[in-house]
Every structure is written in structure tokens, then in C-alpha cells.
Design a protein that fits this description.
Keywords: Phosphoprotein. InterPro entries: Bact_response_regulator, CheY-like_superfamily, Sig_transdc_resp-reg_receiver. This is Response regulatory domain-containing protein. Helix 10 packs parallel to helix 11. The strands form two sheets. This protein has a five-stranded parallel sheet with strand order 2-1-3-4-5, with helices on both faces. A five-stranded parallel sheet has the order 7-6-8-9-10, with helices on both faces. It folds into two domains: about 120 residues, 3-Layer(aba) Sandwich (Rossmann fold), CATH 3.40.50.2300; about 120 residues, Rossmann fold (3-Layer(aba) Sandwich). Strand 9, helix 11 and strand 10 form a beta-alpha-beta unit. It contains twelve helices and ten strands. By secondary structure, it is an alpha/beta fold.
């Protein structure tokens, strides 16, 4: 779920429209700091928030100070926070954004190339989605990646992943088993590729199948690559270096 905190009605509408058109089903808007505080207090919502976008000019609070406040809450610590500033020329606002406790910042409007660049840099680039029902393989993958700058989101079931894909932020990389319980990896690839916001995501399939047709189906559905199981650490690291070159 994305929480947008913006007192500018025009900007708020554009931001919500951008994310809705990009495939995010859960977008909540607060037009003031107080409204955002109430939303974050809600037990039904606060656990679902993965991204908070805060305008630096709010009608009832200083956006930078509010960002620092939110970043210290449990919700803020578990979410990515992006500050919105009015212009790339506003060096003072950008400097304040960098020290506000936010994960990153961007410039209005949100549908600009500048916003997409920052969104990818500060948010998408830090997430790896691991969908695998074998706990041993999940543990091995996490050990190999083991980088504090990378967040690994795990699922052990196809349906669980399916149900949450519309609620979580796009990942930089998806590592996914073909033969998942309840919903196949091929079906999940098709779901991922149907979402505009996930188009830059690299999908690598993990397969124990010797059936070449399964691999072909995954690649046809939109997967970028595949690895055979059991995983050989050296091979996995080499392949990982292609998709996470600055983290390996």
C-alpha cells in the first residue's frame, strides 16, 4: 500500500493517478500531516504501508519535520519514505530532504522521468523478491545475497505471492521457483508482466525440472533467465552479478 501525504490537491491527484495507472491497487491519500497520523494509527492499514510519499510543503506541518517524525515510527521504519520537492533547482529543499530520515527524494510532478529515476534508485533497486517453497533453498539464496542494502521479501506459496503482488513495491529482481504450491511460477510471471510498474523487474526462474518445455514456457511468459536446482553457489553468484552488479 502507498500512502501519499500532500496538501496540494492537483499534485495529490496526479500522484494517485500515476500509481493507479502503474498497477498499484492500494493507494491512500492524506491531505495533511494530521490525516496521515490517523491513517498510520489504524491497525488495518499501518501494517500494509510499504511506501510513504511526503510533500515538503504541507498545510499543517513542515514536510521535512513530519518525515523525521514518521521515520521513527514502526510504520516508517518498515516502509520506504520519499520526499517530494518542488524543483530540482531548489537546492535547500533537496538538502533538507537528504537529512529528513527519508529513503530518498524526488521532484514533482511524479509522472516525470526525474521521478521515475529516483523511484527506481531509492526504492525498486533495493528489493529482491524470493518465491520458493523449499526453506533450504531460501536460506541458501539469502546467505549468498546477504547484503544489508538489499531487502529480501520471501514467499513460500504461489497464492500468497499472487495476493500480495498488488500491495508490495516492484522488486529489482524476482527469484522464483517454477513448481510452486497452489499457483505456478509461470502464472506468476504472467501476472508480474501484466503490471506496468514491474516492467523493469528482472525475473529469474529456479527449476529442478529437466523438461525444456517448462523453461521455454517461463521465458515466453516474460522471464528473463533461469537457473537449475540444486543451486551451485559459484554459478548463482556469477549470474547474480549480472542483475545486481553494484550489490555483488
Amino acid at each position: 500500500m502507498i500512502l501519499i501525504v500532500d496538501s496540494d490537491k492537483s499534485s495529490e491527484t496526479k500522484t494517485k493517478q500515476f500509481f493507479s495507472e502503474s498497477g498499484f491497487d492500494s493507494v491512500v491519500v492524506a491531505n495533511s500531516a494530521n490525516s496521515a497520523r490517523e491513517i498510520i494509527k489504524s491497525d488495518d492499514i499501518k501494517q500494509e504501508i510499504t511506501l510513504i510519499i511526503i510533500d515538503h510543503e504541507l498545510e499543517d506541518a513542515n514536510g521535512f519535520e513530519f518525515c523525521r517524525e514518521i521515520s521513527k515510527t514502526t510504520t516508517g521504519k518498515n516502509a520506504y519514505i520519499m520526499m517530494l520537492v518542488s524543483s530540482a533547482e531548489n537546492k535547500t529543499a533537496i538538502e533538507k530532504a537528504r537529512h529528513s530520515g527519508a529513503s530518498g527524494y524526488s521532484v514533482k510532478p511524479v509522472n516525470s522521468a526525474e521521478f521515475l529515476k529516483h523511484f527506481f534508485k531509492f526504492v525498486i533497486s533495493k528489493v529482491v523478491l524470493l518465491i520458493e517453497d523449499d526453506p533450504v533453498i531460501r536460506m541458501m539464496v539469502k546467505k549468498i545475497i546477504s547484503n544489508s542494502r538489499i531487502e529480501i521479501i520471501e514467499f513460500d506459496d504461489g497464492i500468497k505471492a499472487h495476493n500480495l503482488l498488488n500491495k508490495i513495491l516492484p522488486a529489482r529482481l524476482v527469484l522464483m521457483d517454477i513448481g510452486l504450491p497452489n499457483k505456478s511460477g509461470i502464472q506468476l510471471v504472467e501476472q508480474i508482466r501484466s503490471k506496468v510498474s514491474w516492467r523493469k523487474t528482472t525475473v529469474v526462474m529456479l527449476t529442478a525440472s529437466s523438461d525444456v518445455s517448462d523453461v521455454k514456457k517461463c521465458l515466453s511468459a516474460g522471464a528473463n533467465d533461469y537457473l537449475t536446482k540444486p543451486i551451485v553457489p559459484e554459478v548463482f553468484k556469477e549470474r547474480l552479478g549480472r542483475y545486481l552488479p553494484d550489490e555483488n
